[in-house]
Amino acid sequence: MSRKIWLGIASVSALAMTAATGAAFAQASDDLVAAAKKEGQLTVIALPHDWCGYGDVIAAFKAKYGITINELNPDAGSGDEVEAIKANKGNTGPQAPDVIDVGLSFGPKAKADGLLQAYKVSTWSTIPDSAKDADGFWYGDYYGVLSFEVNKDIIKNSPKDWPDLLGSDYANAVALAGDPRTANQAIQGVYASGLSGAKGDASKGAAEGLKFFAELNKKGNFVPTIGKAASLAQGATPVVLRWDYNALADRDTLKGNPDVDVVVPASGVVAGVYVQAISAFAPHPNAAKLWMEYLYSDEGQIGWLKGYCHPIRFNDLAAAKKIPADLLAKLPPAEGYAKAVFPTLAEQDAAKAAITAGWDSQVGAAVK
Questions:
Q1: Enclosing domain of residue 125
Q2: Domain of 318: which CATH number?
């Protein structure tokens, strides 16, 4: 199964260094576990249980360490997570998040604003350099591609590419999976549609995306409702533009009621990397560090893969033959991802700024 080369594989020397320091880390880990258990709680935000297999990941962490997890606003977007840190700088209560899981473009900005603290997990060397902050303030966790999630009971002909969504078959049918003024998944959905129209020209992706959604809205095909499994099943949003791992998880959860089709578009295939980080003001800093250790362990990474997310250490796990064969067999075929584009951080920043600023004036649909 082919993967994008840019994600890379850790060097032999780096892997050797990890092996050489493993014993020393084990003792530090014991201290960390004890300190985290003393704190007794971890506060997370924006982790719906059907996203990336987080339900099972959270349950496994609690069972392993006996630490309570306080879950804030599961449906929050990346921007909301960062704002939650800002709003709770002096708050050690239950509304202050210890950790965040946000789109790539939000990590460097939060670091620059002094909202994050550095921490390098024990598997640090196996995280590709291109997907982490050199100082440890944020680090990639998983990635996926934007797809069309389709309720086949309502939509008989699944769209194959972005221009199809403008057709009469999709009247009052197409929804984003978030507010494009704040949520990374929705921002990337707009950008992906524009990248298709711009024939891969990243510099025009945001502008073309806004034009596409303005036309989609004008034709009456756009539904200004945040799309999720429930609205898809109820028929309120029969086509949702969603990360493939969320769509595939919905397909499993809904169990044929309705029948769900997951389509990777023929063009404008945008892959998105999400990142983890610890709040600079975390009320439970040791529990936060232990959470990161768990997420970046083999167990945590495979937990994400069970939720159809490609973990950032996928190459390392595959090379070591640590991925169960039955799990590999459940993943979508690699061919659908062959055209995937991984926008640079600069391209994402430019697209985010243009889309969040231009949505209201150019599209004029308040997504709720």
A1: 5-142+272-334
A2: 3.40.190.10
Are the CB atoms for 194 and 210 separated by under 8 Å?
Answer: yes
pTM reported for the whole predicted model: 0.74
User: Do 353 and 226 share a domain, yes or no?
Assistant: yes
Same domain for 188 and 256, yes or no, is: yes
Check: CB of residue 297 under 8 Å from CB of residue 116: no
Residues 313 and 290 in one domain: yes
User: Checking DSSP bridges between strand 174-176 and strand 116-117, what pairing results, if any?
Assistant: unpaired
- Could you tell me whether strands 239-243 and 174-176 are parallel, antiparallel, or unpaired per DSSP bridges? parallel
DSSP result, 5-70: GGG----HHHHHHHHHTHHHHHHHHHHHHHHHHHH-EEEEES--TTSTTHHHHHHHHHHHH--EEE
> Can you give the pLDDT at residue 328?
81
pLDDT at 334: 59
pLDDT of residue 162: 97
Residue 19 has a pLDDT of 33
For residues 12 and 66, membership in a common domain is answered with: yes
Tokens encoding 120: 């390098």
As beta bridge partners, residue 271 has 145
pLDDT below 70 — which residues of the chain? 1-28, 332-338
**Among 274, 303, 276, CA closest to 98:** 276
The count of structural domains within the chain is 2
